[in-house]
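If it is no trouble, can you show me the amino acids of a protein and the tokens describing how it folds?
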Amino acid sequence: MSPEDFRRRCAAWFASSGCPAGSAPSRSRQPGEYVAAGRAHQRALADAGLVGITWPVEYGGLGLGPEYRQVFDEEAAGFETFSALFTIGIGMCGPVLLALGSEEQRRRLLPPLLRADEIWCQLFSEPGAGSDLAALSTSAVRDGEGWRLRGQKVWTTYAHHSDRGLLLARTDPDRPKHRGITMFVVDMAAPGVTTRPLRQATGDAEFNEVFLDDVAVGPDDVVGAVDDGWRAATLMLANERVALADSPIGSPVTLAAVVELARRHGRADDPIVRRGVADAYVAEQQVDLFARRIAREVRVGRDPGSLASIGKLAAGRLAKQIAALAHEIAGPDAVAWDPAEPDGDLWAYGELYAPSLSIAGGTEQIQRTVLGERVLGLPREPATDRDVPFRELRRSP
């Protein structure tokens, strides 16, 4: 099948699928409705043979080249593809399993992941290990041939809707903090797993804290080698940066909506507003063009590496820039609106939502450090604890 034939196939599917227009989740949907709609959408794509385009056929993919993925993305542009729901599973967990998982894990776990029969989450951050992820203290203690997990994770996106997750736990506290970590596959319905949604400033509850109380995992749940989980974590974080740079999660406040707001408020000819719109438009084009560059790198088999941090950093700043412009135009209406007005709360929601995009996937400070050290070649930040056994480190109680 040629790329042209594949394009016609994709275009025909989207034309007849009834997919809603727009790339951002509708705020009118309840979370459960969004997840159900996302599962149905992904299964329909799978039935049409349009998932896992570059993944091997034996794991549920199509085994096609990167140019076919580009064709699909071009045809999917402008439609809601539920990327927020599947970025972690398909964009991050799947590539790690493809690279480091055993043959048995790939055959067992990847096909249901692609079909959305199982939604996946990432169990990395902890109350005492966020930006310094290697400081994690969730433990995995040997129990016969398997392990017992004990600890707490936090900021776990969609954990309350997830079936499985990839988790980092400390398996050897006598080794330095980067070298005694192992990655596990965790069944989110296993005894001892407790998930509690966290209410955000917007009123949403996408994030969660997850408690692990003596959760049993088997030897077949280890991803990669025991005590070599930092390599798996680095691979996943690199895929996260690429996913966010390739397809940035946008704010619900779009530039087009802000332009329409300016027209309604009679400020379309205001030179200050016009300058703000022009600046935001330039920034938006830069983010879009850089995302295309990252996508091209990935699709031809090149790893963009730390360059992906540029796109992630720029997308977060753009969201805050557009939200601030909306508040400048709307004035008091941005924080006190007529309940009868459709989307009257959009501007307040966007202002509260935008900062999260500069935190998700690594804070702006972390991204700048990555770029400074790995792209510009600046000296590394001093680390006095790199070779100290984890159990000897001084940590907050």
